[in-house]
């Protein structure tokens, strides 16, 4: 009998009993809920600063208090343990108050990215039957509120003010929590081996997939990451990219920092002007960047020295060119740590005490991360040979949320997750990412599932067929190119019309094709669109149409704030963004 089975319509595919027992025995899974974890932090680090912004600070006790207030609010709204709520907040302390507030109330947050718009948010609400949407009391959130209000869905909306004066620590009439006694939040009663929240998959399919992460598995990855990355109460971690992303949340991210009693400094934007200023002011010693953002920081650092406090720069989310990696120690005066991870689980780190990691993405967190590198027939390849990366382990999911058919393809019969990444195991045992087999575009760390955009384009007037491919880009790593076969070749739709069509569907703007080409799509012998031929054809050829509206990697700007980011402006002008 296969160890791994997927039942129809399952919300959550548990780890097989034997492996679960092993992970408990090894102390990886400690049977702690997020509620107990946060309570423990408040007890242990009470008056130490936990969250820091340019305007204000909150200590661990405040964090507990604020989260408790939100939990009361959610319970008062009628939310019950096990319900889902879409959390759609930008980099702001409210992200944490609401995230932990939901967890305390036993409600499962769906961690939407700030760049998501109504196409994505509606899909998350539908899939999880979410009872609540929490967004910013800003145009982005108001637009979502209106959109969700038009749908025949029982979802309520809650817009949180992000004005720091209005979210003062004592804004409610509630009593301050007595830290000597643990209040009985519903989140305490939850099973630690059940889902705590949902991460989002970068995906390669038409509908974005949801990733149920349990208290047990996620807290293990947080504790282990904090240890590997040598975090301590002296850690001052700058959260420059979106807080909801797995890299920023747990690798070791904000949760790793809070685990050990450090400080999380929240940057509202990732640009060097904002971030270097925060670094100077708060003595930041660690930051996580995607390669596209690192490039901008390196350029800015040539003109404005980076504060000496910066000790570790993590880079992950997309391939990092060795020649760029080589500049980090000199230009930023920091140790480079490469991070290769995925929201589904597995995270690899290069070691901080190792040689400068130019062309390796490091070692898996756990001795019990099982790594298989296989050929197209699932047969193991020798070390040094690229192959498909399959993995299973104590914090890698065994199935997506309600996606049985997809799960049967994304996981092997014995429970290995097919990552869609091509890797090589190097002589020292570390992994090098060499490519990708999944039909995805990695645009500056933001993942675009080709199929999702192709499906959307097929509905546009004048489009007969569409294929989305990635093209190499010196700044973003890749940009997207939509190859369109028009219904009437004599009168193809214009790129502006197609872009407007996608925008009106409510897709996140980073998913809009950067470029369009109109042609008859080549076919394989089996009659499918031949994407390999398209990639080869367009690889070296310059194309005309480029939209630069969202050059900021993992942008914070929401759908309505269409003002080009400072990074986009800098990239257009062909110079570095800087203060
Ligand atoms: C992180 O998570 P996701 O879920 O947004 O994307 C995962 C995918 C990987 O499967 C791989 O294709 C790519 O992003 N990726 C990298 C990489 N790190 C991620 N490709 C090349 N080099 C790297 N260093 O992106 C993520 C999650 C946790 C920590 C770090 C990144």
Numbering strands along the chain, what is their spatial order in the largest sheet? 2-1-10-9-11-12-13-14-15
Strand share of the residues?
Answer: 15-25%
Second rung of CATH, namely the architecture of the domain at 38-47 and 59-191: 3-Layer(aba) Sandwich
Rg measurement, Å? 23 Å
How would you sum up the global shape?
Answer: globular
What is the residue-averaged pLDDT? 90
Bound molecules: 5'-O-[(R)-(benzoyloxy)(hydroxy)phosphoryl]adenosine
What's the CATH first level of the domain at 38-47 and 59-191? Alpha Beta
Termini Cα gap: 61 Å
What is the count of helical runs?
18
Helix content: 25-40%
Structural class: alpha/beta
CATH topology of the domain at 38-47 and 59-191: Rossmann fold
**Total strand segments:** 24
Main beta-sheet annotation? 9 strands, mixed
Q: Uncertain spans, ≥5 residues at pLDDT below 50?
A: 1-8, 169-175, 547-579
Task: Write a compact overview of the structure shown.
The protein has 18 helices and 24 strands. It is of the alpha/beta class. The longest helix has 17 residues, at 60-76.
Structural summary, described in words:
InterPro entries: AMP-bd_C, AMP-bd_C_sf, AMP-binding_CS, AMP-dep_synth/lig_dom, ANL_N_sf, ATP-dep_AMP-bd_enzyme. Residues 452-528 form the AMP-binding enzyme C-terminal domain. Residues 540-550 have a biased composition (Basic and acidic residues). The chain is of the alpha/beta class and 579 residues long. Among the domains are: 38-47 and 59-191, Rossmann fold; 440-577, 2-Layer Sandwich (GMP Synthetase, Chain A, domain 3), CATH 3.30.300.30. It contains 18 helices and 24 strands. The strands form 6 sheets. The protein has a 9-stranded mixed sheet, sandwiched between helices. A 4-stranded parallel sheet has the order 4-3-5-6, sandwiched between helices. Strands 16-17-18-19 form a 4-stranded antiparallel sheet, with no helix packed on it. A hairpin with a 2-residue loop joins strand 13 (335-342) and strand 14. Residues 202, 246-247, 251, 316-319, 338-343, 347, 361, 419, 421, 433, 436, 442, 447 line the site of 5'-O-[(R)-(benzoyloxy)(hydroxy)phosphoryl]adenosine. 5'-O-[(R)-(benzoyloxy)(hydroxy)phosphoryl]adenosine binds next to helix 8, strand 13, strand 18 and strand 19.
């Amino acid at each position: 009998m296969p160890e791994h089975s997927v039942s129809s319509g399952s919300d959550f595919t548990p780890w097989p009993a034997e492996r679960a027992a092993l992970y408990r025995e090894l102390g990886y899974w400690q049977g702690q809920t997020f509620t107990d974890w946060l309570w423990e932090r408040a007890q242990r680090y009470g008056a130490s600063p936990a969250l820091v912004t340019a305007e204000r600070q909150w200590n661990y006790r405040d964090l507990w208090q604020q989260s408790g207030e939100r939990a009361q609010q959610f319970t008062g709204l009628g939310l019950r343990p096990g319900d889902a709520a879409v959390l759609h907040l930008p980099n702001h302390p409210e992200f944490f108050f609401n995230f932990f507030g939901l967890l305390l109330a036993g409600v499962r947050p769906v961690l939407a990215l700030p760049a998501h718009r109504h196409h994505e948010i509606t899909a998350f609400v539908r899939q999880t039957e979410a009872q609540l949407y929490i967004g910013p009391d800003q145009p982005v959130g108001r637009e979502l509120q209106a959109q969700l209000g038009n749908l025949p869905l029982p979802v309520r909306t809650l817009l949180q003010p992000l004005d720091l004066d209005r979210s003062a620590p004592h804004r409610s009439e509630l009593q301050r929590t007595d830290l000597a006694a643990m209040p009985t939040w519903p989140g305490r009663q939850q099973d630690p081996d059940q889902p705590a929240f949902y991460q989002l998959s970068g995906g390669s399919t038409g509908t974005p997939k949801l990733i149920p992460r349990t208290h047990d598995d996620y807290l293990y990855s947080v504790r282990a990451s904090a240890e590997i990355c040598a975090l301590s109460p002296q850690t001052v971690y700058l959260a420059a990219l979106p807080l909801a992303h797995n890299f920023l949340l747990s690798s070791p991210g904000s949760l790793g920092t809070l685990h050990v009693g450090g400080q999380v400094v929240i940057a509202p934007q990732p640009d060097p002007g904002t971030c270097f200023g925060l670094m100077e002011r708060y003595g930041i010693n660690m930051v996580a960047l995607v390669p596209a953002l690192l490039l901008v920081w390196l350029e800015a650092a040539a003109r404005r020295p980076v504060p000496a406090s910066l000790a570790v720069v993590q880079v992950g989310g997309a391939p990092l060119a060795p020649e760029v990696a080589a500049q980090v120690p000199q230009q930023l005066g920091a140790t480079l740590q490469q991070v290769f991870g995925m929201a589904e689980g597995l995270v690899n780190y290069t070691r901080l005490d190792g040689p400068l990691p130019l062309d390796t993405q490091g070692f898996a967190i756990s001795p019990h991360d099982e790594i298989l590198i296989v050929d197209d027939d699932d047969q193991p390849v020798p070390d040094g040979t690229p192959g498909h990366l399959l993995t299973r382990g104590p914090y890698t999911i065994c199935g997506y949320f309600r996606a049985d058919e997809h799960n049967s393809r994304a996981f092997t019969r014995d429970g290995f997750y097919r990552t869609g990444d091509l890797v090589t195991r190097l002589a020292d045992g570390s992994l090098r990412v060499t490519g990708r087999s999944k039909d995805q575009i990695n645009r500056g760390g933001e993942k675009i599932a080709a199929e999702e955009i192709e499906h959307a384009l097929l509905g546009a007037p004048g489009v007969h067929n569409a294929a989305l491919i990635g093209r190499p880009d010196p700044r973003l790593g890749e940009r997207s190119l939509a190859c369109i076969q028009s219904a009437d070749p004599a009168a193809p739709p214009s790129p502006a019309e197609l872009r407007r069509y996608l925008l009106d569907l409510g897709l996140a703007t980073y998913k809009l094709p950067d470029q369009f080409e109109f042609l008859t799509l080549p076919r394989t012998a089996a009659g499918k669109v031949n994407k390999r031929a398209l990639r080869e054809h367009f690889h070296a050829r310059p194309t005309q149409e480029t939209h630069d509206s969202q050059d900021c990697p993992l942008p914070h700007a929401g759908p309505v704030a269409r003002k080009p980011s400072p990074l986009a402006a800098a990239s257009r002008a062909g110079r570095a963004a800087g203060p």
